[in-house]
Amino acid sequence: MQFFLPLVLGFCIAFLAVILPGLINMTAAKISTQEGKNEALSFAVGAAVIIFFQTFIAVLFARFISVHQEIVSTLQEIGIFVFTLLSIYFFWIAKKPKKIKTDSTVKGKSNRFFLGMLLSTLNLLPIPFYVFASMSLSASGYFSFDKIPVSSFVIGVVCGSFTVFYIYIVAFKKIEKKTEFLMRNINTIIGSVTTFMAVVTLLKLLYN
């Protein structure tokens, strides 16, 4: 259980976090349609390698923060402010995203494995995301910062992310209309999530 639960949680969190159309999964889909499945899989593996290191760094950082309660309280206060601003932005300011263009070409013929590593490295959002995710799981009692749970959580995140990449690679044409629906409503979805996170964080501060 010490291995299985963090593995499943990591997989589910990563799957839900990556399932929306983004730079990496959309690039993987384009490479698949233009250059073939093998090149796209090489790209996805490269991206997954960087995600492994990003998640591991995030969990180690979360473990450090978890033993300094003054830092936790400060981060929660900052989190309320950030989530509130994001909610305002996505509900009232952000414009609706444009339709995804799938006929553009992926330029260059360099090694797709290293291209995946490069794009994943440029995406720094997973680090703070998994810091807060692992801290929240730990506070809820579903995760601990021991070696086995940390290792299984990181493996779960990598597997969940790669699974989404694989779905985009092999089934993009079938899910294209669904991704367009998500993109048309993405501002409302994200705004709802950030509002929920702001309320939960505020309640935790008030009742601690």
Automatic annotation (TrEMBL):
GO biological process: one example: amino acid transport
Keywords, in A-Z order: Cell membrane, Membrane, Transmembrane, Transmembrane helix
TM annotation in the entry: 6-28, 40-65, 71-92, 113-133, 153-172, 184-207
Domain of life where this protein originates: Bacteria
Pfam families: LysE
Keyword Membrane (UniProt): yes
Subcellular location: Cell membrane
Location, primary (coarse class): membrane
Cellular component terms per the entry's GO annotation: plasma membrane
Mode of membrane association: Multi-pass membrane protein
Entries under InterPro entries matching the protein: LeuE-type (IPR001123)
Entry protein name: Lysine transporter LysE
